[in-house]
Design a protein that fits this description.
Blueprint lengths: L1 H8 L15 H12 L4 H11 L4 H4 L2 H4 L6 H6 L6 E2 L6 H4 L7 H13 L5 H18 L5 E2 L10 E4 L2 E4 H11 L5 H10 L3 H7 L4 H12 L8 E2 L1 H30 L1
Parallel strand pairs: 1-2, 3-5
Antiparallel strand pairs: 3-4
Helix pairs in contact: 1-14, 2-9, 2-11, 2-14, 3-14, 8-9, 9-14
């Protein structure tokens, strides 16, 4: 996987948006595309019932797309749904969610909607799209952020000479520099996932995913803020692993919810 990253990244880095979201659109679509391969028959039928022809890859970016909506729900209420904040050495269970909620409380909320026979199709569709998106978010290690630095948004770096921040490098910088479509990258990653890994990774518990992200997060802060090939090489396998696990976990979680 490292060789794949270095070969693709040799084209150089692109300037990153100052407004970091989550995995960028490519990363979220990759997790959705991988998840499609591991849905149970019942989960696949429920997804099709709610989304019709819309794929999980398409649904995965919807909560970020809607952030431009001026409604209070999108500008305020839904903002905490995309991340958790965990001090070093702690866990989400120990730290707890803030009063406004976080990604874990949002997942619980949306799981209840998906299981509620009285919920409207529109509410279930929103819940499904958010669920797909949030699980992807929790596999981006800086979405299990340190207190005080906004998940690396406040950590200023350069990426192949362009000013950006550490969060943006992980959201999209390393992924987009490969110049691969989401389907190409999903195909490459899915092709390397073994049956043993699917079994090991199919844990639907968000606390386990967050623990992995927090452990990885502590290795990502660079001593030198000038990031390029060396940083990409050092962390490429970890990036690919989080995307692959995120896809498998989306399927595992939906299999449980719809089971």
């Amino acid at each position: 996987m490292r060789l794949m990253l270095i070969a693709a990244i040799a084209v150089g880095g692109a300037a990153q948006s100052s407004r970091a979201l989550a995995w960028g659109q490519t990363g979220h679509r990759v997790t959705g595309a991988i998840a499609e391969q591991y849905l149970s028959g019942v989960a696949r039928a429920n997804v099709r019932l709610l989304l019709g022809a819309e794929t999980l890859a398409q649904a995965a970016t919807w909560p970020d797309d809607m952030r431009s909506d001026s409604a209070e729900f999108w500008q305020k209420t839904a903002n905490p749904f995309h991340f958790v904040t965990i001090p070093a050495g702690s866990t989400h269970a120990a730290a707890g969610a803030p009063p406004e909620g976080d990604a874990v409380t949002a997942l619980e909320r949306f799981a209840s909607v998906l299981r509620d026979p009285a919920a409207t199709p529109a509410d279930k569709r929103m819940a499904l799209r958010f669920t797909i998106h949030i699980i992807g978010d929790l596999h981006q290690p800086l979405h299990a952020g340190r207190p005080g630095d906004r998940g690396g948004n406040n950590v200023k770096v350069t990426w192949f000479g362009d000013s950006t921040n550490l969060h943006s490098v992980w959201d999209s910088g390393m992924i987009d520099s490969r110049q691969l479509s989401h389907s190409e990258l999903a195909g490459w990653l899915a092709g390397s996932i073994t049956p043993e890994q699917v079994i090991a990774w199919s844990n639907p518990d968000p606390e386990a995913w967050i623990g992995e992200s927090v452990a990885l997060r502590e290795t990502l802060y660079p001593a030198d803020p000038k990031l390029s090939y060396a940083y990409a090489y050092r962390h490429g396998a970890s990036l690919d692993g989080r995307l692959a696990r995120g896809g498998v976990r989306i399927a595992a979680y939906l299999n449980k919810v719809f089971g």
